[in-house]
Amino acid sequence: MAADPAARPTRSASDDEGFKRELVQLIPHLRAFARTLCGDPAAADDLAQDAMMKAWDARASFQMGTNMKAWTFMILRNQFYSEKRRSWRQSQLDQEAAERTLVAVDDPEAPVALDELRQGLAMLPAEQREALILVGAGGFAYEEAAEICDCAVGTVKSRVSRARRALHAILEEGSYDRDGASAGDAMRAILADAERLSTVR
Amino acid sequence: MSDDEDAIRGRPPRKRNADSMIENMPAPDSRKPSAALDEARLRQQAIGVRLRQMFDEVVNEDVPDEFLDILRRADSKTAENG
Predict the structure, then answer these.
(1) Least confident of A127-141, A175-189, B9-23
(2) Rounded average pLDDT over A111-140
(3) Which residue among A68, A88, A144, A187 is least crowded, i.e. fewest CB within 10 A of its CB?
């Protein structure tokens, strides 16, 4: 049973089992990330499923113990952009889809401020939105986000900071259009909610 | 090396997580020159909380059975092939 470092390690059933267990736990996160990238929830789930299967098929190349979340997010993102490149029509629909996804939440209970935030996000350039979501919502470090987006750490930092400023300005100025809500309403609602949430936590 | 120097000067370790900062925010009514800056920071943090909430909303949804079915099928195919 001497391990030969040059030999490709053979995978055991328990390796696969461990991988699968970890992958299953990541599905909710993959769905959430997919939802922020592409069109309606159904298309997002298709993307998340494709990414999940790509990860499963590539399991031999994954080093257990390293960050599987970042690895699967990278797969999902690559899948998203390669699909987009394959279909030129998709890119035309992209903006429409982004607006539809981030805006259309048919939940009357959904807090107003969340709708405003979705609209604000839809107005950001895709690369800024993606960076902000990974770091601000996905819990990734800048270094991990840079790996996922295949760019320099400094680039992620500047994208996140530009996205934050832009989002703040959008919410503050009320440059979205929603039932004629007056400027600053969204920001006030967000502040109020944040205050409530931070006391709950 | 610079880490050591920081430690000698007693600088606190840098934190990445903004959550702890939200809870430890000074009272916003302190009318210092930095009040505007604090206010801006507070707003950014509020957006951050919202952003996480938006993401977590989907994370907390039930995963459609389809996901696990697909994975189970792929897994059993692997088992058959050895």
Answers:
(1) B9-23
(2) 87
(3) A88
**A198 vs A17: CA distance, rounded Å:** 38
Tens of pLDDT along A59-87? 999 988 899 999 999 999 999 988 877 66
Residue pairs spanning A and B at CB distance below 8 A: 105
d(CA A187, CA A127) in angstroms, rounded, equals: 23
Backbone angles phi, psi at B26, to 5 degrees: -70, 160
3-class SS at B82?
coil
User: How high is the ipTM of this complex?
Assistant: 0.74
B44 → closest Cβ in A31, A48, A164 = A164
**Which residues, 6 or more positions from A113, have their beta carbon under 8 angstroms from its beta carbon?**
A186, A189, A190, A192, A193, B50
Mean pLDDT of A140-148: 96
pTM comes to 0.71
Q: How is A112-126 classified by DSSP, letter by letter?
A: HHHHHHHHHHHTS-H
Chain length of chain A: 201
Q: How far apart are CA A83 and CA A158, in angstroms?
A: 27
Weakest-pLDDT range from A53-67, A157-171, A180-194:
A180-194
Q: Chain A contacts of B64, Cβ < 8 Å?
A: 45
Residues whose CB is less than 8 angstroms from the CB of residue B55 and which lie 6 or more positions away in sequence, other chains included: A32, A36, A133, A137, A138
Of A31, A56, A193, the CB nearest to B50: A193
